[in-house]
Design a protein that fits this description.
Length: about 210
């Protein structure tokens, strides 16, 4: 019985634990969910709910598509460089959804769990864009399961209100720049996690809007 319960944990067959929370780290029912949201005691991944304020969802927005991408690139670079101060990053995911439980959510998956814990502890006393930051450890470890598979190609009919993550991507240029600067930074610190404080993390270069 114990083996069976372990095998279905966090799946749709699990009638006790919420599969959406386990896969995505967020659930549209929130605290009203009939299933348990088991918060992890340790994880490689942190979640910062509602951190990215997407101007595209502001009724007064007058930015064109190019300006919106530049705005996001500046945020993404700023966030990536800040997270490097806590340890080696494997992935950053920003939600492009427009529903209450996913809008503006930002995830960072670190190589090591202790890096994620350091980031979580530090960020909960910080502010960003004149708003307090809330950060928590997330159960998400595989974003292939968390992201909407229909969001690429023909597109998802639910659009921004889909309950799976619609991932907002940085420009290809920024992606390459961050990859190169991070590789250089890792060479400088010799891939030794304990030497993170000995070499400065990559610095953002884009204008913040």
């Amino acid at each position: 019985m114990a083996n069976y319960l372990a095998s279905i944990f966090g799946t749709e067959a699990d009638k006790v634990n919420c599969s959406f929370y386990y896969k995505i780290g967020a659930c549209r029912h929130g605290d009203r969910c009939s299933r348990k949201h088991v918060k992890p005691s340790y994880s490689q991944t942190i979640l910062l709910p509602n951190l990215y304020q997407n101007p595209a969802y502001d009724p007064k927005n007058k930015m064109n598509a190019s300006q919106l991408q530049n705005h996001f690139d500046a945020f993404y670079e700023d966030f990536w460089c800040e997270m490097c101060k806590f340890g080696e990053i494997e992935e950053v995911v920003v939600c492009d959804n427009n529903n209450d439980h996913l809008i503006g959510n930002v995830y960072a998956r670190f190589k090591y769990e202790d890096s994620a814990q350091k980031a979580c502890d530090a960020l909960n006393s910080r502010w960003y864009a004149a708003r307090p930051i809330y950060c928590e450890l997330s159960p998400v470890t595989d974003f292939r399961e968390a992201c909407c598979r229909l969001n690429s190609g023909e597109g998802c009919v639910r659009g921004g209100f889909c309950n799976f993550i619609h991932r907002k991507n940085p420009s290809d240029e920024l992606d390459r720049e961050l990859e190169l600067s991070t590789k250089k930074w890792l060479r400088m610190r010799g891939r030794d996690e304990r030497s993170v404080s000995r070499s400065p993390s990559p610095e953002p270069t884009r204008k913040r809007y």
